[in-house]
């Protein structure tokens, strides 16, 4: 008689998984991993033959074996025939249940749902970890709502807000577009979770979506939740003017001890509550999250204390979770706990190398439009045409996707467990997902490879025909390719899952000459917004997540435009154009300084555009350029501008002055300014670091070792130092004018 292993081998190669051989095997098998393999074969055969009820029965039996026999997990590799892929049994079952949900006809659906409902009803008193496992396996089926509702009630009672959020959102984003596809009951649970956890903006957004649904909750119930939520939304009305108080300069010892705030690239993929928050390093905090008022919330992670080069880190926020990429690890942070339980806010740390040594190095490459594209290169890669890269893909409600040098992986959002990995992915590229599939887009290999979201199975491959990748987020990839006309490119926002170009625009490349020629400049802001401005004054803003053109306006034409920077503050986008300096026949006796590092940039004007309706709000053009810190706190009532001036009474002596100006974010009027403030001759700092103390009409601004206050409270008796020009500044400007 054949051994059980031989019989399984024979059955695996047979197109028919049924009959006497199966019955014999069912009696003989006593090892859990062999029973897992037999049940998996029967599930696959039933699905192929459209025997949906049989498939449901075998899937439930398989789930029972996996749950009760931990040793059965070793069988995962036996039921996945692809040598490039590894996946957990939970992930394999999740893929089969999604397949079942998508392919059932209506005549089978009722009986299958009833079968699952009866089985799940018997398990409702099981511990949380078992209910979680069932959700991971069968979350695509409507019947799983029975378990989801029970588990959600427990999590809400225990105030486990992130777990409750993950449970209801599942394999979706928390964007308005994907929330619209969420079943009403789950959307209602999410609204309650956000309201109870204090995420008022997200709760109100979901209540608005629920009001549009015919099967939504009673309007009275939504009114009650909204009434309880509205007081949590904090809005401040700032006065139109402010007094400036320049504080005494600190001692040399205090000045040398000061640690500047370093800002990392932070992308908000989904959610309203953490718009404007940024990953920073400041003082004692090697890693911190800066809130819209400018104050850092420390992230307790000892291993990162030595990594203060924030240019090597980046972060992505989705709902109530943040994933930080460092040179040697991924770090997941529960933002619900960052305030009240900071020591427990780190969910997990996933090392990217076997010995925890730094693996990644962040490098930039220029685009045709003056922007910089950042990539993580993998250290130690052998010299070859295709350099392996790391890319953090989307954060869904239940998982994190990433590409590491040709290996695509899916990590459980809450536990970091590897759900699946597939080494048959491009060596470099960007990772996208629509909630059903994963796509890796590689411009270096000129291909797009699609994978099953649930178990990592490679599905298909198509050609990439859209040029050079600029950026990617969510479901979309931004790229540009030559049109055939000299210096002209087409910028495209492409969705590989629908194979559609969602947005496109033709634009001339940036001007790299000393002459005035037609040119366009583009900047990505927060990983989400593309801003464009050309020499004719045509400006555009795209939302890369929703694939919508927010704005297309005409601004003053600058034939001498040589650059563009931009920043977003709450619901406004600020374009900061830079023009070519005008030559002068008179040798200057003073120098104007407007730029410092990569965070304080030169601008000759400011154009404010609404992100709500795309209209131009206000504009301000300057006779002389200013410098603007492009990472100002989101809640600031003013845009701060600074510039320095070096004056040389004789070649060996330099005096230094500082100009400061604050413009109202709403209408652009000048709130206050200080011109020609004397500062030490060795002072070179221009970048502003701002904090807004809670409950006060006050701004505290640091410019290097200089510190000043903007006091908006008219009742405070503060000496105003605005528009005071130093004697040295007056002399320097008089000489320049002559």
From TrEMBL:
Database matches in SUPFAM superfamilies: Quinoprotein alcohol dehydrogenase-like
Compositionally biased intervals (Acidic residues): 714-726
InterPro entries: Quinoprotein_ADH-like_sf (IPR011047), WD40/YVTN_repeat-like_dom_sf (IPR015943)
Region listing for Disordered, in residue ranges: 714-738
Identification of the protein by name: Oxidoreductase
Organism: Rhodopirellula maiorica SM1
């Amino acid at each position: 008689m054949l051994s059980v292993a031989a019989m399984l081998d024979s059955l695996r190669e047979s197109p028919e998984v049924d009959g006497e051989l199966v019955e014999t095997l069912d009696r003989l098998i006593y090892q859990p991993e062999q029973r897992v393999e037999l049940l998996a074969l029967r599930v696959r055969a039933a699905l192929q033959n459209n025997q949906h009820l049989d498939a449901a029965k075998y899937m439930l039996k398989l789930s029972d074996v996996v749950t009760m026999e931990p040793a059965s997990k070793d069988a995962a590799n036996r039921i996945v025939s692809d040598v490039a892929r590894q996946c957990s049994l939970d992930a394999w079952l999740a893929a089969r249940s999604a397949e079942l949900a998508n392919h059932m006809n209506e005549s089978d659906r009722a009986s299958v749902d009833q079968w699952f409902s009866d089985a799940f009803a018997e398990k409702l008193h099981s511990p949380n970890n078992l209910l979680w496992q069932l959700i991971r396996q069968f979350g695509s089926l409507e019947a799983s709502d029975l378990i989801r509702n029970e588990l959600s009630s427990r999590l809400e009672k225990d105030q486990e807000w992130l777990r409750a959020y993950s449970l209801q959102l599942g394999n979706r984003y928390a964007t308005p577009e994907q929330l619209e596809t969420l079943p009403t009951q789950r959307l209602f649970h999410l609204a309650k979770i956000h309201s109870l956890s204090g995420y008022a903006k997200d709760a109100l957004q979901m209540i608005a979506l629920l009001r549009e649904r015919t099967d939504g909750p009673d309007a009275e119930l939504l009114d009650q939740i909204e009434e309880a939520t509205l007081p949590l939304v904090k809005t401040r009305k700032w006065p139109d003017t402010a007094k400036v108080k320049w504080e005494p300069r600190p001692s040399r010892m205090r000045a040398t001890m000061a640690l500047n705030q370093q800002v990392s690239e932070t992308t908000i993929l989904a959610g309203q509550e953490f718009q404007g928050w940024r990953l920073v390093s400041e003082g004692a905090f090697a890693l911190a999250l800066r809130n819209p008022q400018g104050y850092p919330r420390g992230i307790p992670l000892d291993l990162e204390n030595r990594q203060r080069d924030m240019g090597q880190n980046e972060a992505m926020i989705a709902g109530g979770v943040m994933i930080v990429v460092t040179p040697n690890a991924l770090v997941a942070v529960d933002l619900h706990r960052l305030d009240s339980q900071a020591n427990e806010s780190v969910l997990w740390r996933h090392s990217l190398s076997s010995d925890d040594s730094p693996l990644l190095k962040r490098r930039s490459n220029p685009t045709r439009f003056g922007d910089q594209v950042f990539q993580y290169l993998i250290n130690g890669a052998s010299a070859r045409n295709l350099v392996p890269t790391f890319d953090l893909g989307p954060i869904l409600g239940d998982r994190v996707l990433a590409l590491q040098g040709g290996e695509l992986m899916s990590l459980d959002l809450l536990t970091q467990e590897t759900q699946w990995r597939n080494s048959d992915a491009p060596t470099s590229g960007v990772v996208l997902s629509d909630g059903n599939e994963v796509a890796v887009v590689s411009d270096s290999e000129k291909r797009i490879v699609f994978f099953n979201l649930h178990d990592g199975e490679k599905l298909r491959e198509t050609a990439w025909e859209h040029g050079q990748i600029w950026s990617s987020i969510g479901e979309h990839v931004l790229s540009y390719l030559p049109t055939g006309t000299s210096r002209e490119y087409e910028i495209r926002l492409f969705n590989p899952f629908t194979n559609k170009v969602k947005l496109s625009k033709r634009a001339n490349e940036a001007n790299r000459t000393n002459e005035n020629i037609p040119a366009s400049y583009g900047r990505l802001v927060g990983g989400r917004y593309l801003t464009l401005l050309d020499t004719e004054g045509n400006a555009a803003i795209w939302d890369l997540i929703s694939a919508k053109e927010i704005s297309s306006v005409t601004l003053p034409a600058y034939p001498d435009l040589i650059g563009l920077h931009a920043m977003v503050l709450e619901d406004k986008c600020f374009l900061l154009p830079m023009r070519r300096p005008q030559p002068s026949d008179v040798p200057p006796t003073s120098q104007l300084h407007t730029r410092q590092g990569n965070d304080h940039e030169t601008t000759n004007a400011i154009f404010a555009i609404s992100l709500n309706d795309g209209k131009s709000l206000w504009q301000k053009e300057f006779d002389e350029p200013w410098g603007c810190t492009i990472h100002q706190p989101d809640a600031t009532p003013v845009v701060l501008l600074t510039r320095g001036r070096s004056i040389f009474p004789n070649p060996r002596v330099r005096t230094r002055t500082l100009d400061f100006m604050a413009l109202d974010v709403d209408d652009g009027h000048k709130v206050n300014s200080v011109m020609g403030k004397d500062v030490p001759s060795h002072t070179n700092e221009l970048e502003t670091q701002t904090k807004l103390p809670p409950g006060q009409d006050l701004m505290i601004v640091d410019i290097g070792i200089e510190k000043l206050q903007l006091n908006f409270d008219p009742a405070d008796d503060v000496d105003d130092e605005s528009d005071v020009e130093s004697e040295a500044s007056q002399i320097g400007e008089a000489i320049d004018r002559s």
